Fold this sequence. Notes:
Blueprint: H1 3-6, H2 10-22, E1 28-34, E2 41-47, E3 54-60, E4 65-72
Antiparallel strand pairs: 1-2, 2-3, 3-4
Amino acid sequence: MSEATSEVTQREMVRIISQFRKQGFKGNYLSFQHVADEGASYFVVMGDENNGNQGLFKIDLLTGEIAFQYMLDGRPCRK
């Protein structure tokens, strides 16, 4: 995936955050990435400042659907 296809505009970020808040999600928005070949779908990494947990979510701005993908452990990858 090229950098240009995954880049998220500030306007898209505002719409994403707004949708998360409407559905009661709280936390820090750590990263945003457009899902290639899926129109208005995005991956969002959210963190909880109280315990440091991070989760990956997928959101479709057309339907408003937010789906939890998995927890991120924050440890560096080993080779």
